[in-house]
């Protein structure tokens, strides 16, 4: 016999949200949505988790506030960390400290490129080729926002090819700051003199040359003049 609606215990809204947050965390920590991955859309989460749209929205918002997820306008919501260190790091790196951001990027990206040259797999190389092609297409489009996202995606692919989970998580935590440095460098328009070729970086990784990959990764990450 099907129980009457009134006899079914319906958890308070706050409890449902907490349960949904824990379900999302479990999927992230379990590797279903690794760092850098785009999570399913809101309707898909509603169907998968069996809760209402508002509950999903609040749970996602809480994880964004915690620095685990990041909403990107027109693109979706992405996993940027598996812990709550991200917002602490991100706040320090986006507080008008562009010279520091570039130094941190250099520390991460140079080592990531070196490791990628040593550890890249055929799948990594395919991902790098795809990301590089998307970056080139974004540059030709003339749209600054599109190019910034494509450039960040290429650098993220290099970090992924390093196969160091901790490095990938720390790098993801500074994703917003990374895009900010690129956006500042580009200005309001994609001018030819601002173009930086990343093809040589990808080739150095493909050739398995860690020294050359590190040099290429660091070549375009110089602090602003006067810094």
Percent in strands: under 5%
How can the largest sheet be summarized?
2 strands, antiparallel
| Average of pLDDT | 82
Number of DSSP helices? Answer: 11
Please trace the helix and strand order, writing H or E for each element.
HHHEEHHHHHHHH
Helix content: 55-70%
Distance between the termini: 74 Å
CATH class descriptor name of the largest domain? Mainly Alpha
Q: What CATH architecture label of the largest domain applies?
A: Up-down Bundle
CATH superfamily of the largest domain: GntR ligand-binding domain-like
Shape: globular
The fold-level CATH name of the largest domain is Four Helix Bundle (Hemerythrin (Met), subunit A)
Strands of the widest sheet, in order across it, are 1-2
Radius of gyration (CA) equals 20 Å
Structural class: mainly alpha
Number of domains: 2
- By DSSP, the count of extended strands is 2
Word description of this protein:
The protein has 2 domains: 75 residues, Arc Repressor Mutant, subunit A, CATH 1.10.10.10; 134 residues, Four Helix Bundle (Hemerythrin (Met), subunit A), CATH 1.20.120.530. The protein has a two-stranded antiparallel sheet. β1 and β2 form a beta hairpin. The longest helix has 22 residues. The chain is globular. α5 packs parallel to α10 and α5 packs antiparallel against α11. The chain is mainly alpha-helical. The protein is built from 11 helices and 2 strands, in the order αααββαααααααα.
């Amino acid at each position: 016999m099907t129980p009457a609606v009134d006899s079914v215990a319906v958890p308070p809204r706050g409890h449902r949200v907490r349960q949904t947050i824990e379900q999302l965390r479990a999927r992230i920590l379990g590797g279903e949505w690794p760092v850098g991955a785009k999570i399913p859309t809101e309707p898909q989460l509603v169907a998968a988790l069996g809760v209402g749209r508002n509950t999903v929205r609040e749970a996602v918002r809480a994880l964004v506030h915690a620095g685990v997820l990041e909403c990107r306008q027109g693109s979706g919501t992405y996993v940027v960390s598996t812990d709550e260190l991200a917002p602490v790091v991100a706040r320090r790196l986006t507080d008008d400290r562009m010279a520091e951001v570039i130094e941190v990027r250099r520390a991460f990206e140079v080592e990531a490129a070196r490791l990628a040259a040593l550890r890249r797999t055929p799948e990594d190389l395919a991902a790098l080729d795809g990301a590089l092609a998307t970056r080139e297409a974004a540059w030709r489009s003339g749209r600054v926002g599109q190019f910034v996202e494509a450039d960040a995606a290429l650098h993220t692919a290099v970090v992924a090819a390093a196969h160091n989970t901790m490095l990938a998580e720390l790098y993801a935590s500074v994703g917003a700051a990374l895009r900010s440095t690129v956006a500042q460098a580009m200005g309001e328009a994609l001018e030819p003199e601002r173009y930086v070729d990343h093809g040589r970086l990808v080739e150095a990784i493909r050739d398995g040359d860690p020294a050359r990959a590190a040099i290429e990764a660091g070549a375009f990450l110089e602090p602003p003049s006067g810094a």
